[in-house]
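Subgroup meeting minutes
Present: P.N., E.W., G.H.
Scribe: E.W.

1. P.N. recapped why we're keeping a running log of single-chain structure predictions: easier to compare across weeks, and new members can see raw inputs and outputs side by side.
2. G.H. added today's entry (290 aa).
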Amino acid sequence: MPKNRPGPTLADSRGRPRARRRRRWVPILLVVAVVGTAGWFGARFLIQSVVNPECTIKAGGITETFDPDQTANAALIAALSIERGMPPRAATIALTTAFQESKIRNLRYGDRDSLGLFQQRPSQGWGTKEQILDPVHATNAFYDALEKYKGYETADITKIAQRVQKSGFPEAYRDHEGQGRVLASTLTGHSPAGLTCRLDAVKSSLTPQRVASDLSEQMGVTSVRPGEGSLTVTARDRTTAWAVAQWAVARAEIYGASKVSIGDRVWDRAAGDEGWSAGADGTTVTIELG
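Output recorded in log:
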């Protein structure tokens, strides 16, 4: 008879299967860890790129951030001051007022019958509801009223804004003069490369002809050559060129602009927070759409 062999010890009978099970789980755990890490980074990138579009403006040692809607409206307000031949101070007054009244948003509501960027009231002669909700009409109405006051260029911001608006809280305008100055200086072209925007990828774009039409209406620039998916602007001087370039970046979300260049300097939508590239500027601006 064969000799009795000792049976496997308790440690052996339990140890070997456990080791095998551990070996089987190792690659699974590694896969889960890799997928989880990739998912975390992917989610973080998605949140940053989709949830936080914003525009940053720097001028005179001051930095302010606005969302794309505010920045687009601010660019229109500044552009109309250029179209009318008004000084940058006019844009500062208008932008300060709009920030106090609506946070530079085209609101469809307000105190009593107040509406729009400047919270103008149809009952006070600013126009019909539809007119006031048209940012071009509302801004021109504000400038029409501002120009009636001689010396507005050097007037105290609270006094001149109150004369135009007749607000119940006139001292509040002074609190936002810093934002108004930064926006005006940059969007009228006096602070080159002062504006950059981090935006989502382009989903759709308007035609070059439509952008050219808006540029003509808002800034009075007519030396525009629409092309296939782009337009080229020849400005009268460097300051105007920067005003056009930064207008295009500020309104890139509306038009679907993917790249704006002025001379060798480029704002690339795909570059995120990198801002304007280095190089020489000039008086020619190219706006690429889509």
